[in-house]
Structure formats: structure tokens, C-alpha cells
């Protein structure tokens, strides 16, 4: 392949607003932790945040902290701290990096926002729809902070989401309310939950519209942009500020489409990404693909915070459905059907599967899915071996070689 050249990627003006949103979010948590009020609930990233918002908690999502540990390349050095107390190097490197950082007493929040530590929880609430690791993660912190831990145990490998699933999960969500009332010191009000669910639905719809702009030719956004813009969808759902900041972002992307302006200077190939990002290589990977005129423009990952089933008129059952319809919860058949639809919608030339060593639940290339989908669709695929946080599991040279060869393959198909 010809020598890699610098390919400028266009910055979005709304990214500054999202950076400020995230800054304000963490500073509010830090102030509450120092003052002891409002109370703070930890929540997994696709956990029942709406119930917590409705009961007056500020909500902290530890996965965002772990992603920051990865993006700042702190994680690799911290993971052994968790390994030393019994956590295997093979389990979630979000968990091991985060616990390692706590054990060493460091945080990327210090450099980013002047915050010295993660916020002390009054309660920790998880949903195992992502994986079982979140339960172990929260139980460990519950013991450290002497804080109660509550959980929802979901289904795995779900094909069609049925009423049986919804009733079961809804009962578990309802069971959270009495202990949360005691911790919050206030009664649960359904109207407060309706408002939170309505705001989450608005945020979700805007986030979907933002990601769907990638269907335009050229795409005004990249997957790598999405990973840095998704913060409000994760930590801000259920709040009006998240809705406000996403309206501005969507307007900017729609203006790019009207002008025929893409996120890259030149977009020759359109790539879909399945699985987690490599947080410590976001910039390097973005530059690599851009230099090859390839726009990695959509993903299964960023779409994880689209909750189309949320309904303020039926809040708890709709939450149960929304959090059970997630891609990561579904059967291979359901996942393959979803990816087929996305490949068509985004007019994709090729698909990248990231086989993240420590994240089997978000690695979909281990049981023949790439081969089945390539046979059905004719769209070529490439598996990249790596990890979300542990950079010892990544070969940059091998990644570069494999990506370049893959793009050459796409070019040959056009000849």
C-alpha cells in the first residue's frame, strides 16, 4: 500500500458543547460528594437510570470512568493492581482498570477537571444486561464504601422479546423502589418517573437521528466521532440538558448534509464497526482509516444507547422492554438480522469486527457470525484482535497491516 498520508478529519463545533456538558456533569457529582447532598447512585451504563433520576439521585456511571482510563492510556498500567487481588487478566478490562485505579488512588478526572476522586455512592444499582462483570464490579465497591447494592438480573441470548421477559424484568425494576425510597428518604412518585422516561426517550430519539445521519453520502460523522459524542446519551439521559446539547449537534450534522460536506476530506469506502472501540487508539485508528479514504461511519456499539421502546405513558414495562431489546442481550440470529439491516441502511462496503479479548459479550466474531453474514450479504469483513482498555493485547503494526490489506481487497472488488 502507498505510504500513509495525513488525512485531516473535520471537527464538529458542537463537540465543545458536549465537552462542557461532561465537565459540568462530573463537577456536579464532585460537589455533591463533598457536600453529602444530593445523594449519589452508581448505575451501570444501560441500567435503570430513569428510576434513580425520578427519586432525586445524581447518577454516576463507572463505565465512563473506565473509558476515560482507556482513552488516556492509564488503564494498561493499572490493570495489574486488580489482577494482584484476584481479578483475572481475562475478565472485563473496564472492571480491572477501574478497580486498579481506585487501589492506586488515581483518576483521569484529576487532569481533566481537577477532581481528586470518584464520587462516593449512597447506593449502587446494576443491570446484568451487559454482562455479569458489572455485578462483581458493583459488589466490590459496595463493600469498599459500605453502601447497599441492588440489581436487575436480565436474560441473555434473547431471540424475540416476549411479554414473559417484560413482566419478569418489570417486577425486578418495581422491587428496586422500596429500598431506594429508604435510601433517598423520599417517596417514589410515578409522575416523576414519567418525566424522566420522557426525557430519556427524547435523548434516545435525538441520538438515533444523530447516528443515522451517517447514511448520507458522504457521511457527516464517523464512528470515532460517535464514541466521543455519546457521553450525554450515556450519563445524561433523563435530563433536559442532554436533549438540548443533542439538538445542537443534530442541527450541525444536518447542515453538513445540506452542504454535501463529509466528516473526511474524501470518502471512498464506507465501513461498519462491530464491538467495542479500542479506547487508547481512537485517534490512531481514526487517522489510519481516514488516510485510506475509509470512513468507519456506524457501529453496533454507539447504538447501544438507543431506547426506542421507552414510553412515558407506560414507564416501567417500557423500561423493561427497552433494556431487554439491547443488541448485546440478543441471540446471534437477532444480532445478525440487525447487522444485515444496518449494512443496507448505511450502504456499507465492508465490516470490521473487533474481537476484544476481555469483552466476550461485545465480541461477535467468535462463533462464525462474520462468515455467515459475508456469505449472505457478499460484504467482506475483517477481524481485528485487540481490547477495549488493555493495550498489551493489541499489535499496532498488525492492525495497520491488516486494515491496509482489507482496504486493498475492497478496491480490488471495485476494479
Quick summary:
The chain is an alpha/beta fold.
Topology at a glance:
Elements (H helix, E strand, L loop, with lengths): L13 H22 L4 E4 L5 H6 L3 E3 L1 H10 L3 H9 L9 H12 L3 H6 L9 E5 L5 H13 L3 E4 L10 H22 L5 H23 L10 H7 L1 H5 L4 H20 L9 E6 L7 H10 L2 E6 L15 H10 L7 H14 L4 E7 L12 H9 L3 E6 L9 H19 L1
Parallel strand pairs: 1-2, 1-3, 3-4, 5-6, 5-7, 7-8
Number of strands: 8
Mean pLDDT: 96
- SSE-based structural type: alpha/beta
Total DSSP helices: 17
List SSEs in N-to-C order. Answer: HEHEHHHHEHEHHHHHEHEHHEHEH
Describe the protein.
The relative contact order is 0.14. The longest helix is centred in the middle third of the chain and has 23 residues, at 190-212. It is globular and about 70 Å long. Helix content is 52%, strand content 10%. Helix 13 links the parallel strand 5 and strand 6. Helix 9 (190-212) runs parallel beside helix 12 (240-259). The mean pLDDT is 96. The chain has one domain (14-414). The two termini are 16 Å apart. The strands form 2 sheets. It has a 4-stranded parallel beta sheet, sandwiched between helices. Strands 6-5-7-8 form a 4-stranded parallel beta sheet, with helices on both faces. The chain is α/β, with parallel strands linked by helices and 415 residues long. It has 17 helices and 8 strands.
Amino acid at each position: 500500500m502507498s505510504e500513509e498520508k495525513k488525512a485531516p478529519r473535520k471537527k464538529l463545533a458542537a463537540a465543545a458543547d458536549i465537552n462542557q456538558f461532561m465537565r459540568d456533569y462530573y463537577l456536579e457529582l464532585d460537589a455533591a460528594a463533598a457536600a453529602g447532598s444530593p445523594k449519589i447512585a452508581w448505575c451501570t451504563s444501560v441500567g435503570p437510570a430513569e428510576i434513580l433520576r425520578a427519586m432525586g439521585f445524581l447518577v454516576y456511571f463507572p463505565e465512563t470512568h473506565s473509558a476515560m482510563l482507556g482513552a488516556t492510556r492509564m488503564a494498561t498500567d493499572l490493570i495489574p493492581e486488580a489482577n494482584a487481588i484476584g481479578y483475572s487478566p481475562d475478565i472485563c478490562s473496564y472492571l480491572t482498570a477501574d478497580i486498579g485505579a481506585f487501589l492506586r488512588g488515581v483518576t483521569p478526572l484529576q487532569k481533566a477537571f481537577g477532581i481528586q476522586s470518584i464520587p462516593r455512592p449512597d447506593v449502587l444499582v446494576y443491570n446484568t444486561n451487559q454482562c455479569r462483570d458489572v455485578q462483581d464490579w458493583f459488589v466490590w465497591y459496595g463493600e469498599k464504601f459500605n453502601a447497599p447494592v441492588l440489581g436487575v438480573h436480565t436474560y441473555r441470548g434473547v431471540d424475540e422479546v416476549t411479554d414473559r421477559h417484560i413482566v419478569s424484568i418489570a417486577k425486578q425494576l418495581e422491587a428496586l423502589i422500596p429500598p431506594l425510597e429508604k435510601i433517598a428518604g423520599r417517596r417514589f412518585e410515578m409522575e416523576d418517573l414519567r418525566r424522566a422516561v420522557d426525557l430519556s426517550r427524547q435523548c434516545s430519539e435525538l441520538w438515533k437521528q444523530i447516528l443515522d445521519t451517517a447514511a448520507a453520502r458522504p457521511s457527516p460523522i464517523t464512528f470515532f466521532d460517535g464514541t466521543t459524542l455519546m457521553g450525554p446519551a450515556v450519563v445524561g439521559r433523563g435530563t433536559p440538558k442532554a436533549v438540548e446539547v443533542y439538538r445542537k449537534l443534530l442541527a450541525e450534522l444536518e447542515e453538513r448534509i445540506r452542504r454535501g460536506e463529509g466528516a473526511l476530506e474524501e470518502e471512498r469506502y464506507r465501513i461498519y464497526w462491530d464491538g467495542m472501540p479500542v479506547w487508547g487508539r481512537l485517534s490512531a485508528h481514526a487517522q489510519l482509516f481516514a488516510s485510506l479514504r475509509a470512513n468507519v461511519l456506524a457501529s453496533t456499539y454507539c447504538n447501544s444507547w438507543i431506547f426506542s421502546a421507552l414510553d412515558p405513558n407506560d414507564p416501567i414495562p417500557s423500561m423493561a422492554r427497552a433494556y431487554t431489546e439491547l443488541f448485546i442481550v440478543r441471540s446471534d440470529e437477532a444480532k445478525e438480522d440487525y447487522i444485515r439491516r444496518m449494512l443496507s441502511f448505511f450502504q456499507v462496503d465492508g465490516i470490521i469486527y473487533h474481537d476484544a479479548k476481555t469483552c466476550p459479550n461485545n465480541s461477535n466474531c467468535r462463533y462464525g457470525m462474520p462468515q455467515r453474514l459475508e456469505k449472505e450479504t457478499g460484504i467482506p469483513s475483517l477481524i481485528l484482535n485487540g481490547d477495549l482498555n488493555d493495550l498489551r493485547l493489541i499489535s499496532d503494526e498488525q492492525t495497520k497491516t491488516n486494515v491496509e490489506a482489507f482496504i486493498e481487497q475492497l478496491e480490488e472488488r471495485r476494479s
